[in-house]
Amino acid sequence: MEYAELNLDRTLQYAAYLLLSLIALIFIVILLPSSDAYFRRFFGEMNPIIVTILASIIGAIALWQLQARYNFVLFMGKGTIRGVLMSAAFATMLAIAIVIADFIIRYPEDMNVPVPQALLFYPAVGFVAEIIFHALPLMLLFIILNPLGRWLGSEQVVWLGILLVAVLEPSFQVLFEGKAFTWGAVYSWIHVFAIAFLQLYIFKRFDFVSMYSFRLIYYTYWHILWGVIRLEVLF
Length: 235
Prior knowledge:
mainly alpha
């Protein structure tokens, strides 16, 4: 690939990332005055606007390193369509599984942000989650694991990093909820681990935008559509 073409390709990738960052930030700015309590569930007392700006900057650095050293991609263009379609297939299957589990486990009634706030809330916090739980730890772990490449090979190191990073989000969720030793928590851990691992697989095979779309599609099913229906069906 010629230098000019490569430079254009990277420009488009970072333009796509900047667009996602700005959309997340705009959604938070719009929603924050009326929905501060919802953001405190995720960000505590930290200002959501500052958190999102910092996450966007950190994410840009992490994704730049992942791209330069390990050939991860931010945005593939036409290839992203295939990534989004695969994400949609995985997200749909996992959404069906968690809806069935909800009839048995009965997750808390107030666990979801209500519509219409949810339409802006979940895309915004989902973007931050991709940075905090995936892009940043993946970059840091690859740096730590890099010496193992001499013995294991670079491809094996990448998959080891993906496997370890996939553990972070389910572990955080279960510990955050404070019910780590129940059957419901065990199922939730396995379920969220499956989501995280498949997302990272999508990231490796396609791009960051496809990985983020996985979360958006899953959130649409679980937190928004089922989030409304379950209140009528289960409670």
